[in-house]
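pasting for ref
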Amino acid sequence: MLIEEHISTHSKVIPTIKNIKGIDIFFDSQPFDLKVTYLPREYDPIDAIKNPSDLAIWMYENQGAQRFGADNRLFVVLLDKENLERSWELKRDFALVFQEIDDFFDREMVSKGDEIVFTFGRKTYTAVSKVLIITK
């Protein structure tokens, strides 16, 4: 909750009222569903860091059917590269996490390169996705 709150305070972010399904913030005039998560066990950390858009596609394609959504998403992935099982501890490292978030929003923009195409349930979808991987 504190991570989401911090993101909402950045000058390039406009938070929404939580009543809008699939939209938590607007960034660079685009609506985003904000997902703070960890690297899936099945996913290689090196691949995630090298190709974050592939990670985003994987996360869309492997979401549960009950929670399916094709909304634009901003994934904040917490990753302890030396011990994946301890990645959750990064949530408590506010200095690191908040600095990485601020740096991300200071330098990033939404562009055509952020569009991804993914398949779910035999249908193809297009969404805009940004991935911030915070590593320790």
